[in-house]
Description:
single chain; globular; Rapamycin-insensitive companion of mTOR, N-term-domain-containing protein; Pianissimo_N
Amino acid sequence: MLSTSATPTQKSFASQQSANPVHIANSRTSFERDGLQPPPAPGLSGGARNLSASAVNFAPRGSSLNPSPMPGSFSSDLRSHMNLSRAGSRPDMFSSLEKLDEDDGSIQERTLAHLREALGREMKIKEGSENMLEALNTKKAKQTKEQRQRVEAELNSSNLRIKELRQKITAAQRTKPPPTTPTRSRTETTYQGPNGVRSPPSASRSGVGSDIEEPTESPTFVLAEILRALEMDGMTPDYYVSRANNLVNLFKRHPTLKYDLVWSVFGLRMQVMLLSESREVVAAGYRMTRYAISDIASLKNIRSLNTDYLVTWSLIKDRKSDVEREQALKLVRAFLDVKDGVREISRAIVRTIGAIAEEPEERLRPICIETLAEILVRDPRLLIAGGGLAPLHEALADGSYKASESLTAAFLYLLDAPEKRKYLRPGNELETLFVVFTDDMSSDERFLKQSAKAIASALRSWSGLMNLSMYNFRAIRSIIQSMVVSDGPVRETVLDLLYSLFRIKSPAWATSFLAGRRLTTYGRVTNLKSTTTKSSQSDFDDDGGEQNFVEHFTALLLAIFIKAGVVPALLRLTQVSENLILRRKSTLLIGEVLKLSSRLLPPSWSNELQLLPELFSAAARLKDENHFSATGVIYQISSVSKTLYRSSPAAYTPSVMPSSNSLDLGLLDDHPKSNTSVNFDDATFRQLLIDSVVLSSSNYSKWNWDVVLRLIEGPLTNGKRLEEAIKASKFVKRIMSFYRPFKYKFSEIKSSRNTQKYVRAGCSLMNTLLQSPEGIKYLSDNKLLRQIAECLAQCDPTSGLTAQYPMFSKDRLTDTLCGGYFPMLGVLSGDPKGILMLDRWRIFNMMYRIVDLKQRPDLIKLMLANFDYSLQAHPRVLLSKALTAGTKDIRINATNALRKYATRPRMNAQGTEPVDSKWAIQMLVTQLYDPEVEVCATAVKILEKSCNAKNHLEYIVKCRPALDHLGEIGAPLLLRFLSTSIGYHYLDGLDYISNEMDDWFLGRNDSYVGVIEASLARSFLDHQDDHTNRISVFDVEQEMEADSHVPPHFYRELTRTQEGCKLLRDKGHFDEFAATIRDHGMQSDDPEMMIKVKGCLWAVGNVGSMELGAPFLESCDVVEHIVSIAQGHEVMSLRGTAFFVIGLISRSIHGLEILSENGWDANTNVMGHSLGFCIPSNLSRFFSLQPWKHSPVTTIELPETQKTESAKFPAVPSRPRSESLIRAIEAEHGENVAEIRKVELDPDPTNQRILELVIDLANMVLYRRARNELMQIKSQKRAVGFKQPHLFRRVMGLLECHHYRLADRSMIVGLFDKSVLRSIIFDDEESEEEDDDDEKHPATGGAVIGRSHVSGSDDDEEEDEDEDEEEDGEDEDDDSSGDEQRTERRRSVSDPPAADTKRHSVRRSFDS
């Protein structure tokens, strides 16, 4: 692909294009490349009409139909495979024909995608070279000299290619292709030059530099010209394809043109193209028809042209016709994009798509399955009546379908409501997902993982969880038992599934533990890290925190699996598994399950679970051989549990209050962790200096950086030790020399994840030097800061210092560790002495000028992200300047830099009390008035999070921010103001509360349902982080919170204050919500009322979650009704809403008491406050979904619009072959036995036999004999019915109503003469029947349309070859009739008013 404007090479190529139209044609990506062949001379047009008589070879597209993340999306390219014998006739006819232009993307966009892909490959090559160099640095230099040189050469060339690709991408993004408005005549508008493209503008006529635009042709005129061009006979296939492509482009440029189509003319052109013998012409016809779809009326017009037969005929062809089949399937999918378009899809097409979906090796199988799934969601009656449920069921069962999660979602949608649930069998569809786990023959790990993903998605939905919990959790018990019984990949996959379902994140030491290393050191190291960072990770949350719906749902899942026996199964696995890694993994999972149960589940669930009675009873049997294995498991579980507790003690027990005064349980560990690393004796200190290798070598790659970091963070923090290291050794001197920019050591190291250790060590070094007077003096006298200041001066245009390659250039900041100097400066900016040193070298002065000039946004973002703003000093002034005077991107980055100062408590240098955050809040309030909405929205989100701390909230209210100009963006922040009396009175003075309250009561309460359900859907998705080996200094990690919390609700915030509760009581809204739940809570047939009930449930739950809302709950019996909805409603999603609302209510003391009386319980902390994870004491009462009555397919009656053949066949009983069975039937039915033994399907006996044999093809017992007899009838040419349209319709009716394999459908349709389909499409059945009555001249069809039979006649029926030769001879005799019909066809199209009156005669002339 060549871009129209990116590089000089491409520009020169573009100039060549303007001089040579042939090059332009070769550069286009659609069928516009096809040569436009002029019509033949009148004297040469005597041949029969032939749209395509030659082969077309498309460039193969490999995997264009592989499943994609989006359902139903697949490549738009076309391809065709032809027989080599036919392709040899005209090998060069379609040399430039590659694919239909399906996508609207320009060449420039494709070039950009290609460049980005190449850039990604080069980045991977670069990373590999860097890792190889780092590995070679650990070996001897002499041994790896040659290899090192090769790797360095590859790395340098990769850097050059990366730089060149980035320049190309930048140029391509900035430059757009110049518009061309060619001067053309009316004829050129239609035919567009000899190659199907427009001619380039002439320099003499286009008026270079002129603003005058040339007049363009009318779209309707162009449409008429294209349709007239399609009327011409005897042209090559590329002629018709290019004209159809031009028509598609016209529809793209003028979308409203399709509403003005005259279907009597357009439909005739469409029918002729779809009946062509060229696969490419047929594909272009389908594509042209698809782009003509506008509304439901256009779909009806298309179906009135008998396209159901054409689509069915195309879909059953073989792989050589994939170009045609693909476009036919796209046409069917286009019906789904129109409102109520599924009502215009016939049952016959669904049957055919289902037959394709049943073939495992079929290329179109994935997209056919997606199409069936979409039809299942939109119209389950049509899919089930069309037999499309079986392929979907099979795709779920075998696990081979890659997009099994989207397919599962279709079944989950039907299982939610009772009116759609009845079409599925209870305990059948979803349980097929477990087949690959319970089948001994299934061991493909890829299929197991795909099925595990589908099971996880089903268990994370309410409809799936309720259905899989039927029959006493039968499905869940089966997968747990398969983990114990099966071996190999099944066990590992089930364990991974449990980790995913319980959302367990493996600790940092898990990999080493699974590899067999001991746990003696992991707990201490992790505990040391947790205690040092605990203070910075705790949040102020004075309101007790907000409800976490994800953990609430996880608590329910955990309770289900515990009841299904997951803990005994894991214990059994730890004793019987021979794989040591699996044993350790199951042991770790047991520890995680015990940890989760103690935190999420009520004591009634977790107390007995923690005892592990089965394991201890087995260990107590001293005479049993299993005693030793059980004892070992107990020891392993104890070690894992203890290590997990040390890793995160606050998360291990529920007794920690989510407030700033919470007790750090890590301090209660039985091993006190004092900072003894500082107090080394002399011998140990000197030995560490020697072990660091810094004293013996000046090559930094040979240094032991773990020991170096241990020294920097440990003994060197002591002034005496630091002075000794400075004066008595070269340790500190060499370390500081390594970091000096102009030594080109640290500053030349390539940036990668592995080299970030040097940045961390540098930051620790700055922090250590600031701890003692000796370090401060040494740092002040060292050249490090002076050289960093000189590097900054190179970026300051006013400094007078310049450099050809500045140290802080954008490329160096991206590719090397030069950006690591800014985190070091950030450490210095957090200390008063460090600020003095920075001020000494005028570093802040240069930063001020850099921010003012705005020439280096990358440098500004890097400074803002790394500076420490805790002190009232230059960094805050610099930040304030960026907040107000920077560009929009810089203002957004500066606003995000305030997040950690406004939302989290910052400890001062002594670590005693939090630093004041008022300055950050003031700056954020100022950002609310920024002219850019994105900046305001960022500030609102940070302030909303900051409101979790009550003192922050009160201060924000005191600032009295005006949010009226922000509209909906500022609404969440205003809602948080209601949670305090000060904020309530402030908003009441603005008359905000009464207006907002009425707004929520009248409509916003219902719209909140969609908001929170979308938030829950996002939070339940699996977010897999893409971990790369490269770190960019420009990727600033923002602490973006997940959407697992409750979106702000007006009534929740209103109930936080006494004034709000009084207003709510006076308005009477809560009583209205309770009455709606009581009167309409159990309804399941009215969707609008169900949304109303959901809105009332969320309102009641948010009011009940507050302690001040307890009187509202006690004033009525609304909690009992909510429990009834959760335990007995027919709609599963409404049950889930009630479950989450119960969790909200349980957060208040009075709400939990009421729920306890109704059989629900929740875990509490040591103060008795509920955590909100409320689950039923008896799970069977909550999972009470009973098997429903299944509606079989025989009870489904489709409307006539969804049938291709509406004529009903008489009931055909089975025809017995044994005399005893015949006598039994005679004894039962008496005189009616003749009618039972044979039902008349057709007056003609041969046709009767053909129909009986077609029926027998659906019987596997009679299949072979029926097929052979049908082929025999066809080969003997004694069946006139194969040329009769009425028999074809009857056979199509059988294919529509019954199940046949794809090959059988192809064979059955291939038996019929080619003229039959044309007769049906053009409604010439009566004339055809008259011709069939005269057996002397059977209708064989002319050569106007040519061959359009299916692949079965080529591949499966060798007997047809003789008949084809005979028909070809008859076609030659029909040349004269072809001349007449072409003349008549021209008249019908050139004179549209007369087209309707002559249309019937024209159609009959095709086969006369």
